[in-house]
Structures are given as C-alpha cells and as structure tokens.
Amino acid sequence: MRKNVNLLMLVLVLIVLLSIVLLTTYYQSNFKNISETYETTAEELSKISKNFTTKLTELNRTTTELSVKSTDKKKLEELYNRLKAERDKLYTELTATQEKLASTTVLLEQTESELSDAKYDILKKDIEIADLDSAVTNQKNRINALNDDICSLNKQINPDYTC
Predict the structure, then answer these.
(1) What is the spatial distance between Cα 157 and Cα 148, in angstroms, rounded to a whole number?
(2) Angstrom distance (rounded) from CA 117 to CA 34
(3) Which of 34, 80, 133, 154 could bond 161 through an S-S bridge, CB–CB 3.0 to 4.6 Å?
C-alpha cells in the first residue's frame, strides 16, 4: 500500500506537473495571441493616430484657406460693388457729356452759320464802302475840278483874283 500510495502520489505529482505544463503552454499561447493582437491593434492605433493628425492638419489648412477665400470673396464683392458704382457714375457723366456735346455742336453749327452770314454781310459792306469811297473820291475830284473852273472863271472876271 505504501507502494500504491507512492505510486498514487507519483501519479498525482505527474498529473499536477502535466497540468502545470499544459496550463503554462495554454497561457503562453494565449498570451502570445493576446500580445500579437495588442501589437497589431497598437500599430493600427498608431496609423490611425497619424492619419488623424494628418487629417486634422489638412482640416486646419482647409479651414485657413476657406477663411482666406471668404475674406478674399468679401473684398472682391466690395471692389466689384465699388467699381460698379464708379462705372454707373461714369456712365451718367458720359451721357451728360454726350448730351452737352450734342447741344454744343448744334450751337457751334448755328454760330458758324451766323459767322458765315456776318462775313458775307461784312464783305457786302466792304464792297459798298469801297464803292462809296470811290464815289466820294470822284465827287472830290469833281469838286476840285469845279473849284478850278470857278477859279479860272473868277480870274477871267477879275484878273487880280487868287485861288
């Protein structure tokens, strides 16, 4: 019985040892799988973190660009409105200037016509003056000739007469 007990004890120790070996192997395998899963998950998490950081940087850059574009759009709209108002003002001024030019052109044509008529009248008056000057000169010459005749007749009447 002692032998049996020893043998039983030996079998029990072997069973315990075998159980310990099996449990150790089982837990080692499980730990290895969990460790591999952890490493894979950690790598994926690292990739996701890098991707998240990249996307966050892109989002910040896009937000900045959008803000700049929005500001630029507002500035362009203000510039457009200012230029449109200036264009409308210039168009109004152009229309007024064109109307003024048209009325000035009509006035110029009327004035040129009046000037032409005045020049024609002056030319007629100059001719008339020349004719009158010629008539005056002829009359003076006639008066002088008649005065000479009078003087000569007076000398015939009175030889002492002086002209």
Answers:
(1) 14
(2) 119
(3) 154
Q: What pLDDT is stored for residue 8 in this prediction?
A: 86
State how far the Cα of 98 lies from the Cα of 91, in Å rounded to an integer: 10
Residues in the chain: 163
Q: Please report, for residues 52, 102, 103, 110, 114, the alpha-carbon distance to residue 107 in angstroms, rounded to integers and kept in the order given.
A: 80, 9, 6, 5, 10
User: Quick one: pLDDT at residue 162?
Assistant: 83
| Torsion sign across C-alpha atoms 142, 146, 147, 148 | positive
How confident is the chain (163 residues) per 10-residue block, as mean pLDDT?
78 93 93 94 96 96 94 94 97 97 97 96 95 95 93 89 79
